[in-house]
Amino acid sequence: MTIQLPIGLDVDGYTLRLSTNQRSFASPFGGSEQVIDLLQDRWLLTLSLAPRRHGDAGRIEGFINSMRGMTEVVYLYHFGRQQPIGTMRGAPTAQAASVGAGLLVVNTVAGATIESGDMLGCGGLLLQARAGAVADGSGVLQVPLANRLRKAIAGGAAVTWDRPAAPFRLISRVGVQFVPGYASGVSLDFAEAVDL
User: Fold this and answer.
1) How far apart are the C-alpha atoms of 148 and 134, rounded to whole Å?
2) Could you give the CA distance from residue 41 to residue 22 in angstroms, rounded to a whole number?
3) Tens-digit pLDDT profile for residues 75-88
4) Which of 46, 63, 93, 107 has a CA-to-CA distance to 113 between 20 and 30 Å?
């Protein structure tokens, strides 16, 4: 079941970071090292919520408890990059891409741009541009990705630029602490749900 993020959370801090699945092997004698990327990148997100009055804390308490630990999911996005800094808008679509690809080719309008750090959604994945890019005269925009594709993207798949989101599971065991006069702030840790 998908839980809705409560309106008016008063987020006073957040962190979105990429967790890469990799293995490293180091030689104990020669000093050489090899790192293997297992291509299962996933996002980790921490939300810090401001202290509030008792009457306002019920929404947060209800949200935390409705997540039922890691059972339910909530769709979350990058709170600081809700839309691209670049100029790409409209209804862009993706060209087909395979698992492990580090580039998303987007069909948009000529001259549309994406800047480094801009977030996009495609095929249920939350993607981040590693570097800026400009669409050519045919409207083909080649977006280098910070995270590799965890699954294949079908040609013609919609590309979301306005609050692109992915499903997340609550991984922290927290609650709202009520003290005289107010409820303390709370920090919530989430991990991207990779099986949806």
Assistant:
1) 20
2) 9
3) 999 999 999 999 99
4) 46
Residues 100 and 110 sit within 8 Å (Cβ to Cβ):
no
CA distance 90 to 162: 10
Residue 114 · residue 132 · CB < 8 Å: yes
Encoded tokens for 41: 């990148």
143 contacts 104 by C-beta, under 8 angstroms: yes
pLDDT per residue as tens digits for the range 141-163: 999 999 999 999 999 999 999 99
Q: Is 171 left (phi over 0), alpha (psi -120 to 50) or beta?
A: alpha
Q: List CB contacts of 137: < 8 A, sequence separation 6 or more.
A: 110
- In the chain, the DSSP E strands lie at 11-19, 22-26, 33-37, 42-49, 74-76, 93-94, 103-107, 113-114, 119-122, 125-128, 133-134, 140-144, 159-160, 166-170, 178-179, 182-183, 186-192
Residue with tokens 């992915």: 166
